[in-house]
Amino acid sequence: MPQYDLDLFVIGAGSGGVRAARIAAQHGARVAVAEDYRIGGTCVVRGCIPKKIMVLSSRFHDAWDDARGFGWSFPAAPEFSWPALRDAKDREIARLSKVYEDNLLGSGVAIHRTRAVLDDPHTVRFADGSRSVTAAHILVATGSHPVHPDIPGCELGISSNEAFDLPELPKRILIVGGGYIALEFGCLFQRLGAAVTICYHGSKVLRGFDEDVRDEMMLALATEGTTLKMDDEIATISEGEGGVRNVAFTSGQTEPFDLVFFATGRRASTAGMGLAEAGVDLAADGSVKVDATSKSSVDHIYAVGDVTNRLQLTPVAIREGHAVADSLFGKKPWQVDHSLVATAVFSTPEVGTVGLSEAAARAGGRGVDIYRARFRSLKHTLTRRQERTLMKIVVEQKTDKVLGVHIVGEDAGEMIQLAAIPLVMGATKADFDRAIAVHPTAAEELVTLRTKVPAADPGAA
Questions:
Q1: Which of 80, 90, 373, 398 lies deepest, with the highest CB count within 10 Å?
Q2: What is the pTM of this model?
């Protein structure tokens, strides 16, 4: 048999790559990782963690105001410092990155701080020219990167990568997009004091989500003061006096902004890695084509996480990396089930969803029952905010099986994680009904909904 320097070489030290490397090493494999930026990847360094820190900071804007309704008063208006938040965030990210690094080293994984490319199907060359190594197995976990639309002046905009390190908070921000990143940053920037406009080419935000969720978020965004430019796109961006971005829209309007933020999607980071030359099949968008075991078209080369463009979610990448390591080195092969994955949008209010939307459940003529409640939570009976909570359960008529749960409201992300457990177990509506409510909570609606409601508009966009 051929002799290799390593049993596993991992390209990319994000969530999926780090998990695979650690588990493989714990199984006794000889493992090395290459990373040319910071240990932890997008999620830890410029994604989930810093974004959630900023989201939490932004919600103090509401908390101060809500407190007055509960009898609290303040001698002066609270003040917010963007640099203080940014610097506190940086300290926490540095700490987490060091934890990831220490965990790798503690597991016996060698770390190479350089870009790595494939010279052949078993040879990895370091871009700094230091050396090449051979490996029996290679795991590609290089993640994805934001993309800008191809329009004149697109270089005058930023992406989520740069948003975390702005020197100051701009006063007027245009966010282009209607998905997770657009809503999360739109809500947090608005609460931190910026005037936010969201521009999206569709009629509603959150394409692919349940229609009731989309409607609720459209209403919530407008109610909280976000300007919505639906069914519109940017035609050009030009720089004006003092760095102002003058944005011309396809609708014919031109408006000035201090910042243009593109939340227009992400693309797999595979360019210049030598993958195609090594025989790895890539999709048209550059992502690595893999099978259910995360194996590419080359038997010993695997890929996990965003680089495969299956589900661009950190917990999914972690699970995929763990499965690869166990399967190759732990003598207990298993595969990740991508069919029922809970997710949350950390906008304000939050969105939590697991399972099928109403429209998806009805596809193919399947009969479904809908249970839905929309209410003002106890907290907001004493505040000035008009925020509502939405709970929706989609049930298959024939089997009574719960096909989907959708929540909009405070702590929706926390609630949907727990709701995912019974759905994965195949729970029925009767199972939900048997659970006794915890009162008074918003979550009790999930086990007290009894009345069926009319279907959503089947022709909704």
A1: 373
A2: 0.94
